[in-house]
Amino acid sequence: MTQTLRILHVEDDLSILEITKISLSLSDRIKLFQFSSPAKALEFAASEKVDAFLLDVAMPEMNGGILLQKLRELEGFETTPAIFMTAHAQHEDIVRLEALGANSVITKPFDPVTLAEKVLRIFERLTQNNPPERMPR
Q1: DSSP code per residue over the chain
Q2: Average pLDDT, stretch 83-107?
Q3: Cα(84)–Cα(53) distance, integer angstroms
Q4: Rg (the chain; Cα; Å)
Q5: Is the confidence at residue 132, as pLDDT, over 60?
Q6: CB-CB contact of 10 with 67 (8 Å)
Q7: Inter-helix orientation angle 64-72/38-45, to 10°
Q8: Fewest CB within 10 angstroms: 46, 59, 135, 136, which?
């Protein structure tokens, strides 16, 4: 994959937001758009295209599952890969997130050194399973 991966990241914990920003900046293949507010992220997504969503699950304003549902209602994002980040990653939690539309789950705490590589691997795996013409650009 040589394209730049445009990721919409939504996380209400400002320290995790910053750690994720630093972690993903280790790759020149990722362009990150971050929001601590799901509502602001929705506003952004209504006018910008991204290749993937990286979403916190537990947020007070709007949980990640509802946010993903609202993002998928926007034109062009119906099949955009969604990766949830959560501290609750028991089997039943992952099954519930997959039912909400998650393509993958990253457990918190995560390794900041390997996060970018992990996200790129997940995206590459997902795009290999979907023809490129179905992926929004």
Answers
A1: --SPEEEEEE-S-HHHHHHHHHHHTT-TTEEEEEES-HHHHHHHHTT---SEEEEES--SSS-HHHHHHHHHTSTT-TT--EEEEES--SHHHHHHHHHHT-SEEEESS--TTTHHHHHHHHHHHHHHHS-GGGS--
A2: 87
A3: 8
A4: 14
A5: no
A6: yes
A7: 10
A8: 46
- Are the CB atoms for 64 and 99 separated by under 8 Å? no
The overall pTM is greater than 0.85: yes
Q: Which two tokens stand for residue 50?
A: 């991204």
Dmax (CA) for the chain in angstroms is 36
The answer to whether 105 and 89 have CB atoms below 8 angstroms apart is yes
CB 75 within 8 A of CB 47: no
Tens of pLDDT, residues 35-59: 999 999 999 999 999 999 999 999 9
Which amino acid would we find at residue 20?
A: T
Q: Is 80 exceeded by the pLDDT of residue 124?
A: yes
Please name which of 68, 36, 63 lies closest in space to residue 53, comparing C-alpha atoms: 68
CA distance 120 to 3: 11
- Strand pairing of 82-86 and 104-107? parallel
